[in-house]
Amino acid sequence: MDKIKIRGLEIWAKHGVFPEENVLGQKFVISADLYTNTRSAGKSDDLTQSIHYGEVCQFMKTFMEEHTYQLIETVAEKLAEELLLVFEHLQGIRLEIAKPWAPVGLPLDTVSVEISRFWHRAYLALGSNLGDKEAYLRQGIQGLQDRKDCRVTAVSSFLRTAPYGGVAQDDFLNACLELDTLLTPEELLDVMHEIEQEAGRERLIHWGPRTLDLDIIFYDDIVYDTPELHIPHIDMQNRDFVLNPLAELCPAYRHPLLKKTVEELKNALTEPEEAHAK
């Protein structure tokens, strides 16, 4: 990915663990790599197609001056998030914040914190088979859209499907959505659980009825496995109620383990039924 580099921006601000640092202030030095696609701007010579690095520098200066934090780790985290939220073409950032006068009582050049943060693309599955199913799905979508660190960029059709897992219950209403997010997979999972709880979700029976069910299907192209979370979703290739709406959004998206596209997985699931019908 292309990047615009900012090096050695000096700012006087009030951040630090010691009270005098928050009163008197000190010098901070910021360096940043702004990850973006510069091709459109390069071909058109149009600044609106790129990131105005002068505005970015002024934004960082104002942010540093108007806020006070004890840790430069917090300064870096908050500043990176705000930059990613404010600047349209910014897809990611590597940010280093240095304290040349760090009060450690020993001779040193500088102490710094460096982080990298990016927008991530995730695909989620939604389901409901209790009460007003469509209202619950829309509540789940809105719950994500209401967060500043999540952007719902596309939603599939709502599809009525038979229940999965052998538990006798009403039919489901299912959908998938495309999401850009600053959250990590674990943070996104926590947010999804909060949204489910707000919709009255109760986890009483495995594969049982629920007001709202949210699952992460893909998150970028990562393979992630913990006791609480599996990415890609561990059983998505066997679920037509996931593959059908997902194919509306990203038919060419390739499963990082199975090496097949969503469209190929969908076709593989329906082909045996079609062959048996013949």
From TrEMBL:
In the N-terminal section; belongs to the DHNA family. Belongs to the DHNA family. Residues 206-217 form the 7,8-dihydro-6-hydroxymethylpterin-pyrophosphokinase domain. Coiled coil: none annotated. InterPro entries: Dihydroneopterin_aldolase, FolB_dom, GTP-CH-I_C/QueF, Hppk, Hppk_sf. Pathway: Cofactor biosynthesis; tetrahydrofolate biosynthesis; 2-amino-4-hydroxy-6-hydroxymethyl-7,8-dihydropteridine diphosphate from 7,8-dihydroneopterin triphosphate: step 4/4; Cofactor biosynthesis; tetrahydrofolate biosynthesis; 2-amino-4-hydroxy-6-hydroxymethyl-7,8-dihydropteridine diphosphate from 7,8-dihydroneopterin triphosphate: step 3/4. The keyword Aminoacyl-tRNA synthetase does not apply. PROSITE patterns: HPPK (PS00794). It catalyses: 6-hydroxymethyl-7,8-dihydropterin + ATP = (7,8-dihydropterin-6-yl)methyl diphosphate + AMP + H(+); 7,8-dihydroneopterin = 6-hydroxymethyl-7,8-dihydropterin + glycolaldehyde. GO terms for molecular function: 2-amino-4-hydroxy-6-hydroxymethyldihydropteridine diphosphokinase activity; ATP binding; dihydroneopterin aldolase activity; kinase activity. Its EC number is 4.1.2.25, 2.7.6.3. It comes from the Bacteria. This is Bifunctional folate synthesis protein. Keywords: ATP-binding, Folate biosynthesis, Kinase, Lyase, Nucleotide-binding, Transferase. One of its GO terms (biological process) is tetrahydrofolate biosynthetic process. Catalyzes the conversion of 7,8-dihydroneopterin to 6-hydroxymethyl-7,8-dihydropterin.
